[in-house]
Amino acid sequence: MTENRKVKAFVEESAILLQPNQIYWCDGSLAEATQLMEELVLQNKAIRLNQSLRPGCYLFRSDPSDVARVENRTFIASIDEKDAGPTNNWVHPDELKATMRQFFRGSMKGRTMYVIPFSMGPIGSHFSKIGIQITDSPYVVLNMRIMTRMGKSVLELLDQGSDFVPCLHSIGYPLNEGEMDPLWPCAPIEQKYISHFPEEKLIWSYGSGYGGNALLGKKCFSLRIASFIAKEEGWLAEHMLIIKVTNPLGRVKYFTGAFPSACGKTNLSMMVPSIPGWKVETIGDDIAWIKIGPDGRLYATNPEAGFFGVAPGTSVFSNPNAMKCIQKDTIFTNVALTDEGDVWWEGLTKSTPKHLIDWQGNDWNQASSSKAAHPNSRFTASIQNCPCISSNWEDTNGVPISAILFGGRRPDTIPLVLESTSWEHGVFLGSIMGSEMTAATISNEIGNVRRDPFAMKPFIGYHVCDYFNHWLSFTNRTKEELLPKIYMVNWFQKDQEGQFLWPGFGENARVLQWIFERCDQQVDTISTPIGKIPNPRDLNLDGLHISKNRFEQLFNIDPTSWKKEVTSIHNYYQSLGSTLPKVLKEQLEKLETYYT
Ligand code: SAT
Ligand code: MN
User: Fold this and answer.
1) Quick one: which atom of ligand 1 is closest to the CA of 260?
2) Nearest to residue 284, comparing CAs of 389, 128, 385, 381?
3) Measured between alpha carbons, how far is 362 from 357 in angstroms, rounded to an integer?
4) Which of 148, 203, 219 to mutate to test the pocket of ligand 1 (most atoms within 8 A of CB)?
5) Contact at 8 Å (CB) between 384 and 391?
6) Ligand 1 atom 6: the closest Cα is on which residue?
7) Is residue 212 in contact with ligand 1, taking CB distance under 6 Å?
8) Are the C-beta atoms of residues 491 and 501 closer than 8 Å to each other?
9) Which residues are close to ligand 2, an ion, with C-beta < 5 A?
10) Are both 549 and 566 inside the same structural domain?
């Protein structure tokens, strides 16, 4: 409880609308989490995993209709439609609230209403912002406890009068007297609403209990609402990992990287470099809040406190640090269960177990045609358990950024690495990012390439063209030479047989080395119409067996592909409307002189 009047009013008004059986204020303690989990195990909503193999670990199975973010049910309800822009769904806030109020009315009947005070960013940091999530999902409470700083320390800040973002959430499944509670209650897809009211800095989410739809501190607050606040206040809220890179001489640089969901941010942020003497440590794997520091450089902080990582593909080969991180005190969602009571997913082991229980709770064997784990199955684990966490990850001033990487899944066209020629050109590269769609969002276009500017398409809380302008404005806010260098990377090029051209994972350190050395101006570049690429002699290939032909393909700038790309960018830019910044149009026109 708190004496903060605004908080009390939010909780009281919510309870009147939602009509829960009882209200519970979360303190964030271990005892509280243990008790909640016990109750869920008793109700069969959580499965206690084999505690000698995975102490403190539990498995949840969601409803098959509730397995990922729902972008077509996500709304930016700005007062004026044109402020939401062409990349967002828009409904007038009054209309959306009226519709949602109908759903919220009595939606917590028969349930407990949990009040979760949380901080995005370290307590006491000038970066940090507070939220209060109201939810009827104990699963959400347990995940928020890992993903954010939650509980007592935040209530103390609220007592001192701190402001907060109200985050209202209900799974949308009231329980009437005597009614059976399903294992994963949620509302049907057409009743799900993930709504943001940017001017009011308010979030309302109804009908889903999964990931970014329900853990409102994450995409809803730290990206959509935060991007709106960041524009007002002159900083950036980005879908980026943050890493600390140390070279063999002990010199340190920090990089951030924007990649769409399920494109390897977690793997890159915990990478074990294949090249001797280099070290990568994690600051964050998903979100970066970036501000100009007193010296004019950009400083980044990770507002989260945990990882909500994609399980399939994670293994001791692809990400040994994540494997150690999820050894204990981890919540697994929609992975498969082994006969020993451990977890399994596609890509975890070289051989597949003979028998499993799949993510829907059915028997599964090697002859089964379906996947044992859902492609968007997840682990929720504390950053504290990550063996390669950087010791200064909670530095209240953030870390100074030397380079920004933009990347997506592109089977062709985009070379392994490309350096921008200026900040403006870097913003252009961010604006034209594309990626094959993954299972992180519910869509029937999985595998198709879509434009995903700055990996923020689903997360910009306002007009995308204003967002581009905001990025461009940084040359007016600080000296251009103090801004990070900008790179486009593509680990995902494929050969004609559909095999990846580049081995990826720890071998990506070779690209990081080149970027590191570029930041120190130790190596030069080759200019091309699309940007600067490495001089082949400067890319460290020691110990890597890659044929000359494959290596050349990685940097091949194919005019036919680029003609197509330029046409596609042209059409994309047109779809963004008349407020597209002129300098970006000019960047495209320059490219069109080479590729038409
Ligand atoms: O489900 S989340 O939105 O949190 C994960 C992601 O899409 O990056
Ligand atoms: Mn993400």
Assistant:
1) 8
2) 389
3) 5
4) 219
5) no
6) 261
7) yes
8) no
9) 261, 286
10) yes
Does any domain span residue 367?
no
Q: Is 261 in the pocket of ligand 1 (CB under 6 A)?
A: yes
Identity of the amino acid at 190: E
Same domain for 525 and 398? yes
CATH of the domain at 529: 3.90.228.20
User: Residue 262: which residues within 8 A CB-CB, separation 6 or more?
Assistant: 310, 376, 438, 439, 440
**Do residue 422 and residue 461 come from a single domain?**
yes
Q: State the DSSP string of 148-215.
A: SEESHHHHHHHHTT---EEEEEE-S----TTPPPPSS----GGG-EEEEETTTTEEEEES--SHHHH-
Q: Is the CB of 458 under 6 A from ligand 1?
A: no
Q: Give me the tens of pLDDT residue by residue for the chain, a chain 596 residues long.
A: 788 999 999 999 999 999 999 999 999 999 999 999 999 999 999 999 999 999 999 999 999 999 999 999 999 999 999 999 999 999 999 999 999 999 999 999 999 999 999 999 999 899 999 999 999 999 999 999 999 999 999 999 999 999 999 999 999 999 999 999 999 999 999 999 999 999 999 999 999 999 999 999 999 999 999 999 999 999 999 999 999 999 999 999 999 999 999 899 999 999 999 999 999 999 999 999 999 999 999 999 999 999 999 999 999 999 999 999 999 999 999 999 999 999 999 999 999 999 999 999 999 999 999 999 999 999 999 999 999 999 999 999 999 999 999 999 999 999 999 999 999 999 999 999 999 999 988 888 888 889 999 999 999 999 999 999 999 999 999 999 999 999 999 999 999 999 999 999 999 999 999 999 999 999 999 999 999 999 999 999 999 999 999 999 999 999 999 999 999 999 999 999 999 999 999 999 999 999 98
Sign of CA dihedral 477, 478, 484, 489: positive
Q: Are residues 206 and 242 in the same domain?
A: no
Q: Decide whether any atom of ligand 1 lies within 6 Å of the 440 Cβ.
A: yes
What is the tally of structural domains in the chain? 2
> Could you tell me the pTM of the whole model?
0.98
- Same domain? For 154 and 213 the reply is yes
Domain that holds residue 120: 5-234
Residue to mutate (ligand 1; options 70, 221, 304, 308; most atoms within 8 A of CB)? 308
Q: What is the CATH number of the domain that holds 63?
A: 3.40.449.10
CA of 95 to the centre of ligand 2 (A): 29
Domain-located, residue 294: yes
Pocket test for ligand 1, best of 147, 224, 261, 379 (most atoms within 8 A of CB): 261
- On whether residue 350 sits in a domain, the answer given is no
| Residue nearest atom 4 of ligand 1, based on CA coordinates | 212
Regarding whether 148 and 125 lie in a shared domain, the answer is: yes
CB of 289 shorter than 6 A to ligand 1: no
176, 59: one domain: yes
Establish whether residue 239 lines the binding site of ligand 1, counting it when its CB lies within 6 angstroms of any ligand atom.
no
Q: How far apart are the C-alpha atoms of 432 and 448, rounded to whole Å?
A: 15
Which residues form the catalytic set? 263
Q: How far is the CA of 211 from the centre of ligand 1 (A)?
A: 6
Ligand 1: atom nearest CA of 286 is 8
State the Cα angle at 283 between 142 and 266, rounded to 5°: 70
Ligand 1 proximity of 265 Cβ (cutoff 6 Å):
no
Residue 527 lies in a domain: yes
Closest alpha carbon to 420 in 510, 503, 480, 501: 480
